[in-house]
Every structure is written in C-alpha cells, then in structure tokens.
C-alpha cells in the first residue's frame, strides 16, 4: 500500500508541436496564448500571464493571423473606448482542434507513456 502522505510522482504530459511548413508551427505555447487572450480579452495580459513581452505575444498573434485563411485574433487599439482582443470563431476552431488532438494523442499513447514512466529511475530518494 502506498503512503498517502508521500508526494505523488508528477504526471507525465504529452506536448505536441505541429509543423505545417517552415513558417508555421502550432504548439502548446500558441495554444496557451490563444486561451489566455480569450480569457483576458487582452494580448498584453495574456503575454504577462505567460511571462512574455507584449512584443513577443503580438508577434505570435501576427504570425498565426498571417498563416491561417481567417484571423485567429481580432484586436483593437486602446483609447477612449479602450482596446482589447478577442479570439475569433476561426481561432476558437483552431484551438478546439489542437486541444482535441492533444487529448486523442494522450489517450492513444497512455500505455506507451506508462511503459516509459515505469522505466524511469526513482529520483525521490536522491533529492
């Protein structure tokens, strides 16, 4: 029986990157950025939440918007009415497909991930 007070081993995560061509890679960082823009309504706030500069966040948004047939993020400048950003329906679709693909791959690979994890050295006694 395992000790309930013992720290549990970290659960492995499967992270995917899809390289469409030399100009576009869609991976966990861009997916997280889209989610945070959706949740915060702001590219700047999403970047801050990811410890990323506004310039870097904006560059990634521009890269995604240029690569897809429809923009994934729509933004407006600040001012009297305030600025902001929103994930477009196309952005929601891209994000949904990406997250579903992560889920499918994690389920399909669970046995292999478990096999790999069982082969790891027990590092808990070495810390």
From TrEMBL:
InterPro entries on file: LysR_HTH_N, Molybdate_resp_trans_reg, WH-like_DNA-bd_sf, WH_DNA-bd_sf
Cited Pfam families: HTH_1 (PF00126)
One MF term in the entry's GO annotations: DNA-binding transcription factor activity
Gene3D superfamilies linked: Winged helix-like DNA-binding domain superfamily/Winged helix DNA-binding domain
Domain (HTH lysR-type): residue spans on this chain: 34-92
Superkingdom to which the source organism belongs: Bacteria
The protein's name: Molybdenum-binding transcriptional regulator, ModE family protein
């Amino acid at each position: 029986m395992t000790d309930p007070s013992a720290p549990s081993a970290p659960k492995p995560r499967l992270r995917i990157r899809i390289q469409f061509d030399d100009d576009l890679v869609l991976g966990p960082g861009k997916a997280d950025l889209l989610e945070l823009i959706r949740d915060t309504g702001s590219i700047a706030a999403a970047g801050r939440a990811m410890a990323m500069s506004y310039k870097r966040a904006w560059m990634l948004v521009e890269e995604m918007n240029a690569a897809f047939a429809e923009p994934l993020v729509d933004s407006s400048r600040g001012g009297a009415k305030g600025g902001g950003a929103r994930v477009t329906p196309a952005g929601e679709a891209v994000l949904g497909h990406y997250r579903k693909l992560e889920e499918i791959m994690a389920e399909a690979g669970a046995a292999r991930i478990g096999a790999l994890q069982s082969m790891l050295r027990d590092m808990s006694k070495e810390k």
